[in-house]
Amino acid sequence: MRVTNPLLVGVTSPLVGRDRDLEWVSGFLTHTDSGGALLLSGEPGVGKTALLDAVAKSAVDAGTRVLRAAGVH
Fold it and tell me: What's the pTM value of the predicted model, to 2 decimals?
């Protein structure tokens, strides 16, 4: 039996081939009862922001409050 991640229900994103990444990040979010940190790193243009946008949207759709911040140099 496959367990459905509530943060991914209804996700329709243009992230082709990123299902595994979406599941990993949303899984991290569903297991942060005691806090945690997540660092996404990679070359420019690989889709880090798109991945976070998709997970944030699905979290909001599931009723979770999402707070986002961006840093600049």
Answer: 0.64
